[in-house]
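Quick illustration for those who missed Monday's session on complexes.
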Amino acid sequence: MRVILLGPPGAGKGTQAVKIAKEFDIPHISTGDIFRQNLRDNTDLGKLAKEYMDKGLLVPDEVTNKIVEDRLEKDDCQKGFLLDGYPRNVTQAEELDRFLQQKGTYLDCVLNIEVEEDALIERITGRRVCPNCGATYHIKTSPPAVDNVCDKCGAQLIQRSDDKLESVVKRLEVYESQTKPLIEYYTKKNTLVNIDGNKSVEEVFEDIKKALGDRGK
Ligand code: ADP
Ligand code: ADP
Ligand code: ZN
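Prediction with zinc ion bound:
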């Protein structure tokens, strides 16, 4: 199963991705996570990505496409993959199409998670993440058992630097102008399924399983 998760920042892509990857036993590939991991490891890629991420802008396409293609070449992607946060503009989507076509493969489904804008801002500004294991929480809707401590590994939770209100507004603008056109792009290719992301995490996941089940495992 080869799946893309599309949706504005804060829609719940990462949250659902973890559940989908487990249920369907496919690798979860998040470009945002890859950039943040590089930042923690202090690599050149991490330093470059940070300049764009902090401003809420997209990392240049050549850089991002190469990272994704290198990752998709790995053996574990033979059985399928779940792309979270990629592609994020039409140039990336065209490059992914070209890459998959050259491999003789194709996408099974593009899940477009839709959430109202006010709720997005609530979700992003309340998001807290574990810098150690990557787990995601929300101060109101899914708080950890002990304030600010990761349930899974005990590390102190942090707020992503780009989750402060200033960057969030910019990221939502970038989504509108660059990422949203992908809805039309994939609708034309007949691979898009809209998912109502305003529901609870479990309800959204049930709808996703149904959509993916209908498209065949
Ligand atoms: P994305 O990867 O699309 O940016 P996340 O999965 O990180 O989004 O979710 C953003 C925030 O919203 C997180 O704090 C997460 O805990 C919370 N969240 C995710 N899904 C839901 C939901 N269905 N209802 C309420 N809060 C949610
Ligand atoms: P969210 O889902 O909350 O928007 P992500 O973790 O997906 O956050 O992305 C964080 C940042 O990483 C983006 O604002 C952007 O700077 C960079 N990024 C992630 N994916 C891509 C991509 N496909 N192309 C360019 N930049 C990206
Ligand atoms: Zn943790």
